[in-house]
């Protein structure tokens, strides 16, 4: 009796698709998504057809997948079925519905056999179909209205030593724009989406960025080859690489001449200037480190010059016909950049990107719009953007909060622009309006920055669609703006499943009109996006499909950011997760110190006509190295050890290179004792400049009390050369004196190592002065004595034996001899 009841209960639970009643067999463990991670079978969804249901779709949904035995036991009677939950009714449901328990998928289809037995390591592909609508009496999903529906693919099996149980599942979203007539039911009619709502104005940003690849500590040069950490970028730019496929997907929507722009009009390419500048340097040949962990070690020839040139040419063609906007340099953390507060670094990160992109791609990018990688910035970062001429920042919807608005994940504010008041942080994570406005308080601007209007527009994107788009492709990150309540490891889902989730998220706003939600959406993938060509084309076609069904209308990115705000108050909110994923605070001080050294050296360098290398071109790589250390690339992982290692290595390499630069300008030690010919002889010195650019220097000489050395003022040293100087010197001591000598910039910054000169003068000093004085006194006494005796008519004893007449005769005789000799 008891055994029969147990078998009955087990059979009932199996029909309901419940989890195994045998904990000793299943040993299931929960993962971050709320589903069980089996130890026996792994279910992977491979394809869904149709991916988006319309009135013209096939009336049957077909899902194909693969079941793999990942355990150590045989599994018998493997079967799968499709289940459906209720349509997503809130924006957060696009994420939270992927964590629903199996019992919430109330509509179930029949189990379909996959394999009688799967041995350990064995896999089996399958395809399961089910009708979309009721009407034929067969099993169906029972769809009656358009919407975005969560679907579950459930696999059951009987492991050895166990009973039939649910061993794994796969979850995904199915967007339904309309329903086709039921198969075999002539009386059924197609069901379209509600026509009363206006089409959703849709804009898609298409990012092209990569992690920093340049080796740090390499100053600018004319003929030197750049060095890359590795050659992965060559693979990414080549056929089938990540960046190549992103460009290929965009090429599929470029209209032919004379045709309407369509989807292409809604896309704006967001380009990382660090990426395109690196790619351009690759086209001229480059070197790659033999070991990325040894930046000063051996290098080998890079292999991606041809790939780089081809990719760059294709991107130039796209940029000439599509909207283009520059990203902050190397995905720099704007909040950390504001904390560093270095005008030179800020200018390179914020002012230079548009010029770099325009120069390399031969286009005119959209100016005054910043797209921070984190999607969230603090108040100082907002001030920094405004000081550098930015009128608009594109942020996550949860990075702005309405004063007094409820902290609800599903709160959706109206589509009208709004005013943000800085200085107040409001809690809550909600979907925010498309455009808001942040007035900046008065902040002292750098001297090179003109006065600015005290207002910064903030254009927001939907965090739910952005989270879904981030999961598309390889190495999917979970963005910083994704609420903690719905964060889980998306890599447990297959790529086709994650693509389905993105398609559903893109369609949700169009399918769910409401007076408190905007009829517009900005779709924002992550900047280091991993979508391939097929996935990218599927997303672009989704916009086209929504447009064709009158649910969406392509809107240019420039039109979106140009919307006028209204005066309602809002505040910026720097999200806690964004602060956690930010560049560590420990890097602020060293980067600030090295940035100041770059500026000090740059002010001392001089551009000369005969030199091909300019001071700015020479020192720009040093600034870029420091910015790359603040990159947010690869900082979405739970463990940032590798990102921290790369950042610290860049700072150390940049510091060593700057040390070398400052040490390259010095005074050559003369060696031995320098002897002056006289007490006022000049001091001869030789200064050497090993830098490839000219530099202005000053001598700093600590003269002893016995010397007087004239300051010769500011002097110019030629590039990669030496120059001799004569320093006016007066020495009043014949002893050997030690004179310390050093070079500085005109601002007093020390250059090179100080040296000292041992000087000895031929002057006798005090003894010579005494002897000279005594001789003068004796001469005066003797002259005075002679004059005194003559005045008194007394012969001088010194004149004894002196006959004037004899002297006159001798003189005449000498003159006569001289005349005869001349004749």
Written account of the structure:
The protein is an alpha/beta fold and 823 residues long. Helix content is 30%, strand content 24%. The protein contains 20 helices and 38 strands. The protein has a seven-stranded mixed sheet. Strands 28, 30, 32, 34, 37 and 38 form a six-stranded mixed sheet that branches. Helix 5 runs parallel beside helix 7 and helix 16 packs antiparallel against helix 17. It is elongated. The N terminus is likely disordered.
Number of continuous helical runs: 20
Spatial order of the strands forming the largest sheet? 19-20-24-23-22-27-21
Low-confidence stretches: 1-38, 404-453
How many β-strand runs? 38
Shape: elongated
| Alpha-beta classification | alpha/beta
Based on CA atoms alone, the radius of gyration comes out at: 41 Å
Main sheet specs: 7 strands, mixed
Overall pLDDT score: 83
Percent range of helical residues: 25-40%
State the end-to-end CA separation: 166 Å
In terms of DSSP E residues, the strand content is: 15-25%
């Amino acid at each position: 009796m008891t055994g029969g009841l147990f078998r009955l209960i087990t059979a009932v639970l199996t029909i309901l698709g419940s989890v195994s009643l045998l904990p000793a067999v299943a040993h299931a463990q929960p993962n971050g998504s709320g589903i069980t991670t089996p130890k026996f079978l792994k279910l992977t969804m491979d394809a869904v057809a149709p991916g988006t249901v319309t009135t013209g779709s096939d009336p049957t949904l077909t899902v194909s997948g693969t079941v793999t035995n990942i355990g150590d036991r045989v599994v018998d009677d493997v079967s799968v079925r499709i289940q459906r939950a209720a349509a997503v009714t809130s924006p957060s449901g696009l994420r939270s519905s992927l964590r629903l328990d199996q019992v919430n998928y109330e509509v179930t289809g029949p189990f379909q056999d996959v394999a009688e037995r799967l041995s350990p390591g064995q896999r089996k592909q399958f395809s399961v179909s089910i009708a979309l609508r009721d009407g034929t009496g067969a099993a169906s999903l029972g769809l009656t209205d358009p919407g975005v529906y969560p679907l579950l693919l459930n696999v059951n099996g009987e492991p050895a030593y166990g009973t039939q149980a649910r061993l794994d599942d796969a979850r995904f979203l199915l967007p339904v724009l309309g329903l086709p007539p039921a198969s075999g039911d002539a009386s059924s009619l197609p069901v379209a989406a509600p026509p009363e709502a206006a089409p959703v104005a849709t804009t898609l940003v298409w990012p092209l960025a990569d992690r920093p690849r340049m080796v740090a500590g390499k100053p600018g040069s004319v003929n030197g080859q750049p060095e890359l950490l590795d050659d992965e970028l060559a693979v990414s730019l080549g056929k089938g690489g990540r960046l190549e496929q992103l460009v290929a997907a965009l090429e599929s929507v470029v209209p032919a001449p004379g045709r309407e722009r369509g989807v292409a009009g809604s896309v704006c390419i967001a380009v990382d200037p660090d990426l395109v500048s690196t790619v351009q340097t690759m086209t001229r040949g480059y070197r790659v480190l033999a070991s990325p962990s040894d930046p000063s070690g051996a290098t080998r020839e890079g292999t991606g010059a041809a790939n780089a040139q081809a990719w760059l040419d294709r991107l130039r063609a796209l940029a000439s016909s599509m909207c283009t906007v520059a990203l902050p340099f190397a995905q720099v953390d704007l909040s950390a950049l504001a904390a560093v507060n270095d005008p030179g670094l800020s200018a390179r990160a914020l002012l230079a990107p548009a010029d770099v992109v325009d120069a390399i791609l031969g286009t005119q990018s959209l100016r005054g719009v910043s797209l921070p990688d984190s999607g969230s910035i603090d108040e100082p970062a907002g001030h920094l953007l405004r000081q550098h001429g930015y009128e608009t920042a594109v942020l996550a919807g949860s990075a702005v909060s309405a004063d007094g608005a409820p902290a609800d994940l599903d709160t959706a504010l109206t589509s009208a622009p709004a005013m943000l008041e800085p200085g107040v942080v409001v809690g809550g994570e909600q979907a925010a309006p498309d455009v808001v406005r942040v007035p900046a308080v008065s902040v002292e601007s750098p001297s090179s920055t003109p006065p600015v209007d005290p207002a910064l527009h903030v254009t927001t994107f939907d965090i739910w669609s952005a989270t879904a788009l981030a999961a598309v492709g390889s190495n999917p990150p979970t963005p910083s703006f994704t609420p903690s309540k719905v964060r889980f490891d998306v890599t447990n889902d297959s790529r086709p499943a994650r693509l389905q989730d993105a398609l559903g998220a893109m369609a949700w706003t169009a399918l769910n009109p409401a007076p408190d939600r905007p009829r517009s959406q900005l779709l924002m993938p992550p900047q280091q996006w991993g979508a391939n060509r097929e996935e990218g084309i599927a997303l672009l076609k989704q916009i086209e499909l929504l447009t064709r069904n009158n649910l969406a209308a392509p809107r240019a990115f420039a039109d979106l950011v140009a919307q006028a705000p209204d005066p309602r108050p809002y505040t910026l909110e720097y999200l806690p997760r964004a602060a956690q994923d930010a560049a560590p605070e420990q890097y602020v001080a060293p980067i600030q110190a090295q940035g100041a050294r770059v500026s000090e050296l740059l002010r001392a360098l001089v551009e000369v006509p005969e030199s091909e290398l300019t001071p700015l071109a020479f020192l720009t790589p040093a600034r870029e190295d420091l910015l790359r250390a603040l990159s947010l690339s690869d900082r979405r992982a739970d463990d940032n050890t590798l990102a921290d290692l790369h950042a610290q290595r860049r700072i150390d390499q940049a510091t060593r290179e700057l040390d070398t630069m400052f040490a390259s300008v010095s005074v050559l030690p003369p060696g031995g004792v320098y002897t002056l010919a006289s007490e006022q002889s000049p001091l001869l010195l030789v200064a050497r400049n090993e830098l490839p650019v000219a530099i202005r220097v000053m001598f700093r000489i600590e003269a002893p009390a016995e010397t007087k050395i004239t300051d010769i003022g500011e002097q110019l040293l030629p590039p990669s050369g030496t120059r001799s100087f004569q320093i006016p010197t007066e020495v009043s001591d014949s002893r050997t004196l030690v004179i310390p000598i050093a070079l500085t910039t005109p601002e007093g910054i020390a250059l090179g190592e100080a040296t000292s000169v041992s000087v000895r003068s031929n002057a006798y000093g005090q003894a010579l002065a005494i002897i000279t004085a005594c001789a003068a006194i004796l001469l005066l006494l003797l002259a005075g004595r002679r004059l005194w005796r003559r005045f008194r008519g007394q012969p001088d004893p010194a004149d004894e034996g002196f006959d004037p007449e004899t002297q006159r005769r001798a003189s005449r005789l000498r003159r006569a001899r001289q005349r005869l000799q001349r004749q």
